Amino acid sequence: MNKCYINGVASITAQPTTNGKFLEDIISYNDIIFKADNPNYKDFIKPSAMRRMSKSVKMGVTASKMAMEQARLEMPDAIITGTGMGCRQDSEKFLEKILYDDEQFLTPTLFIQSTHNTVGGQIALGLQCKGYNLTYVQSSASFESSLIDAQLMLTEDSNKKIVVGGIDEIAKTSSKFHILNGELKQQPIPNLELLQSKTTGTLLSEGATFMVLDGEKSTKNIAEIVDIEMIYTASIEETKKNIEDFIARQGLKIQDIDAVILGNNGDRQFDTYYQSLQTSIFTNTQQLYYKHLIGDYHVASAFGYWLTCNIFKHNNVPSIVKMNNLEVDEHKNILLYNQYRGENHSIALVRKC
Amino acid sequence: MAELVEELKVKIIDQLSLEDIEVSDIGNDDPLFGDGLALDSIDALELIVLLEKEYGIKLTDPKQGKEIFQSVQIMADYITEHRTK
């Protein structure tokens, strides 16, 4: 596999992650569903273009522009996005109009804006980018699917510069369905006490994380995505073996991993996957988490890459993301592992450049 | 007529999500497309739906839109003459 470098990364989440600080001002919530913290979208999108954009489009366009600015890239060769639910706000509005207007008077804007590839399309339109443009809709493996596609593209041609991102938004009605089906907590809890929760389900939020990937070594490189693996289903024991095998395939040992970033989301039933690793192969490894800050959603795992890049850039780990007390002088290899309800396991190794 | 013109401006701002634009920013004779509000072809479709939904006017020939949507005043004149609700 060819090299895959991250030259820029930006994330809009429920925390102020676009202010240039590294998780210094933390917002606490006491709700089951909480919204993303909006940057000033007008700094990035013309008002004439923004008026038709739902939140996911605004978040996606803005995060992609931030990542491109950081990578000093004006025109990518490809735009690849991942989303679990797509533009669900406008999908809801469109369905409501069908219902309340008795299938009459349907306007084009909501329909155009309600497709899953709207964000990728709007980014391309804004840039006038006519290159490869694809959106992966693979539940909680959506972002990783787009990442693997980008990696394959860089294997064919290392000169390509690719914008890769994950976007998901909260909608007024359908987001609450996840309370009914038990995927979310039944009662509000403080997000910062997520891991103390003794109940099933998680907290839902929204966000967009974008990266600029490049196959060429340069001074712009922040980190290298050494490898990524996806496994649809696995038991706890199989997961442990899968991770050990993954690390061995990189020619590394467990002790070579400086930190592991886990997707603990406070769901008593499925956090056992992470806890099993925390108390076995990663006992002596620095353990980090982030879903207590940004909530969970189908592409929340993309935030792990933002966190990793910022650890490398700042050479510092904010205490708010630490699950144990182990300290590391300098991070070189960070392993990311995420799963959602026992499915869509993703393992990735990211190395400092 | 003045009442209808004001009502129309409010509905256009709402239907087309014209952020940062107030009723007072739209002149009765300002062109809606091109130099004025700089609306585009999707907005034209939205305006056709607005006419049908709010005033019961169904445009069958898209070319009509080009004439009717020249300004708010021309739209109001057309609505006054053709409205069914």
Number of E-state strands of chain A: 10
* H/I helix tally of chain A: 11
Strand content of chain A: 15-25%
What is the overall shape of chain A? globular
Multimeric state: heterodimer
Order of helices and strands of chain A: EHHEHHHEHEHEEHEHEHHEE
Which pair of protein chains has the largest interface, and what are the residue counts? A-B, 13 and 13 residues
Radius of gyration of chain A: 19 Å
Q: In angstroms, what is the radius of gyration of chain B?
A: 12 Å
Content of β-strand of chain B: under 5%
Q: Give the structural class of chain B.
A: mainly alpha
Low-confidence stretches of chain B: none
Q: Kindly report the average pLDDT value of chain A.
A: 96
How many helices of chain B?
4
User: What order do the strands of the largest sheet of chain A run in, or round the barrel if closed?
Assistant: 3-2-4-5-1-6-10-9-7-8
Share of residues in helices of chain A = 25-40%
